[in-house]
Amino acid sequence: MLYPSGMRLRIAITVPYADYARQWRDEVAAQLPEAEVFIDDGERAVADYAIGWKPPPDFFERVTGLRAFLSAAAGVDHLLGHPGMPADLPIARIEDGGMGAQMAEYCCAELFRYAQRRGQYEEQQAQGIWKQRGYTPRSEITVGLFGIGVLGQRVATAIRAFGYPVIAAAGSSRVEDGIEVLGPERHDEFFARSRVLILIAPLTEATRGVVNRDTLAKMPRKSWLINVARGGLVVEPDLVAAIDEGRLLGASLDVFETEPLPAGHPFWTHPGVRITPHVAAITLPDEAAAQLAAKIRQWMAGEPVSGQVRRNRGY
User: Fold this and answer.
1) Contacts of 207 (CB under 8 A, 6+ apart)
2) pLDDT in tens, 16-70
3) Catalytic positions, please?
4) CB within 10 Å: which end of the chain, N or C, has fewer?
5) What's the DSSP call for residue 7?
6) In DSSP terms, which residues pair with 223 in a beta bridge?
7) What pTM was computed for the model?
8) What is the largest CA-CA distance in the chain?
9) How far apart are alpha carbons 286 and 94 in whole angstroms?
10) Strand ranges (DSSP E) for 102-160?
């Protein structure tokens, strides 16, 4: 892949972990053997495209010549909030990269645990209590997806396969692939109907703090929250209060306002909160590299590129 001047296409890799960076470099190089793929080493460099996640604060000062940045994560808040991100630099995001199946597994596992009252049975086991708790029909456990993009669709498909009713909240009311999607004018209804609420939306100015005291108060009593999106969607003290007051039975949280979760945070020891360290959907470099390499080829050929970020919307 050469320019008229004979220069090779150059692609910079910037991810926080050295082993992960090498894996990304090797996978991208395998997909684009004509290109020179290198790991950002903190020095000045010239590149045509960059692939990564959470670039260093000075990345865009040091790495020049960029035509676009391709996010190795589905969310792009790490880029839109970057102080050095050029205002006119195009951004594309990964649209699955092996994350969809993982996220569907995670959400289904937490949903099943709630529906089957596994937490209560674990408590009974610890106390030596033999007591059947009864069964709640799936038809009475409506799952509300806040966000219905590529990953949200994958989660919805998995949950519906087990017979649970699924609704979604998004920017407009519609029916999409048989799912009732409620727009902003119906979001109060969305929360009121969601027995299990799954957050799978990007973090934007419109979605920050969307789960708060007011919205939690609208949810059915003894409902459950699953957050696999971004911690900033939840007002954390309001969530703790809602569980303590009995509004929610509890929450499964994979993401947090501050990561790693600080020592001493109430979530660590709260009996109604289940914690995982941002592992619900890890980008798999082998699958993701093929997708991002295809986007680079489309850009080079002047073709439409899917997953391009609209900065005014935040995703």
Assistant:
1) 146, 201, 233, 314
2) 889 999 999 999 999 999 999 999 999 999 999 999 999 999 999 999 999 999 9
3) 230, 278
4) N
5) P
6) 248
7) 0.90
8) 77
9) 13
10) 143-146
